[in-house]
Amino acid sequence: MSEPQFKKIVIFGVGLIGGSFALALRKANAVGEVVGFGRSTATLEQAMQLGIIDRIGTDLAELGDADIVLLATPVGQMAELMARIAPHLGVHTLVTDGGSTKSDVVAAARANMGNRIAQFIPAHPIAGAEKSGASAALADLYVGKKVVLTPLPENSKDAVARVRKAWELCGAVVSELTPQQHDAVFAAVSHLPHLLSFALVHDLAQRDNRDLLLSFAASGFRDFTRIAASSPEMWRDICIANREALLQELQTYIAELNQMSTALAAGDAVRLEQTFHTARELRAGWTAQ
To answer: How many whole angstroms separate alpha carbon 122 and alpha carbon 109?
Structure first.
C-alpha cells in the first residue's frame, strides 16, 4: 500500500467540523494518524470511541511532526490557541481553520503566530448542520460542499495547494477569495439572513399573543425561521466578528424595506409586483443551479 498523503494530522476541536475532516480523510485512506486536542476530555474520549481520532493529545510537542493542524474551535478561542501552538509547529507543519469569518481570524493569526504566519492557510468549510459535537461528525459531510480558502500573501503556492488537496480529499469543491471578499460575501448571503430570522422570531417572542400567532404559523414561517434555531453563542460571535460588513448589508436591507414601505403606503401595486417578480426570477434561477 502506498504511503498516505498526510502521515499525521492534529485537530483542535473534534466536533462536527473537525471530526468530519478526520473521518473524511480516513475514508479516503489519506491519513496515517489523527491526534485530537480539546477542552473537554469527555468529547475527546467519545471521538476516540467513534474512531475519529487515534489518540488524545496531551503535549503540544505533538505538533512538531504534524503535516496539518486544523483549528476547528469557535472563532473566539483561536487567538489564544494560535499563541499556544506557534512555538511548537514544525517547519513543514501547515495550519488551517474552519472559522465562518476570515478577516478577524487572519488578524488573530498575524497578532499571535509571529514568523509562523506563512504556515497558516485560512479556510471556511460551508457545511453546517443543526447538530454539533463529536457524535455529529460525518465522513461525507464535505462531499460536494464548498470550502473557501483565503490565502495570505505570505503563503507559498505549495502550502496552499497542500491544504486545498486535504479539503478536496474530503470531497469538497474548493475556491479562493481574499479574507475581505469572503466576509463581504457571507455577510450578504449568510450572516444577514440569520440576523433577520432571529429578529423576526424575537419580535414575536415579545408579544402577549405570541401563542395565538404561532398556532397559525405554517410553512412560510417555518422556512423563514429555520435558521433561528441555530446556536445563539455561535451567531453572536459571527455577527460581532463580521460587524462592519454585516452593518453595511443591514443598511442596504433597511433601505430596501423603506422602498417597500413607501410602495405599500402609496398602494403602488405595480412597484410591489415588479419587486416580487425580480426576486422570484433570481430565486428560481438559483435553485435551478
So the answer is: 9
